[in-house]
Amino acid sequence: MKRFLLLLFILLSSCTNNPENYLEHINGYWEIEEVVLPDGTKREYRINETIDYLKINDSLKGFRKKMKPGLNDTYYTSDDAEAIVARIENNKLILQYSTPYSIWEEVVLEANKERLKVVNEEKVVYLYKRYSPINLNLE
C-alpha cells in the first residue's frame, strides 16, 4: 500500500505544470483564438488582422509587439512595443507589461508549443494558438 501511495504521489507531482517550463514556449508569434469573460461568455476569433509577437530573453525581460502578417513570412508593425518582465511568484508565471501610459499583469495558465493561455487582472482569459504564416508558393 505504501508503494502504491508513493507511486501515486510521484505521478501526480510530475503531472503538475511547472511555470518555469512555460518560459521556453512564450517566444514567438501568437494568434488569439478565444476570449472568456469572467461571467463565462466566450468570444471566438476566426480571423485576426493582427497577431502578437512575444520575446523574453534569459534575464526574463522582453517585449510584445502587435504585428500585421503579410504574405510569404512578412510582417508589418510600428515601433510601438510593450515591455515585459517575467517572474515566478507563488508557483505562477507572471508577465508584467508596461508602456509609458500603463502597467498591468497577466498570469500564464498554460504554455506549450501550440497554445498559450493567460488570465489578466480583470479575470479575462485569453487563449492563443501558435501563428502559422501565410505562404504562397507562386512557382
Automatic annotation (TrEMBL):
Keywords: Signal. It comes from the Bacteria. Residues 1-19 form the signal peptide. Pfam families: Lipocalin_4. Residues 26-117 form the Lipocalin-like domain. PROSITE patterns: PROKAR_LIPOPROTEIN (PS51257). This is Lipocalin-like domain-containing protein. It comes from Winogradskyella alexanderae. InterPro entries: Lipocalin-like.
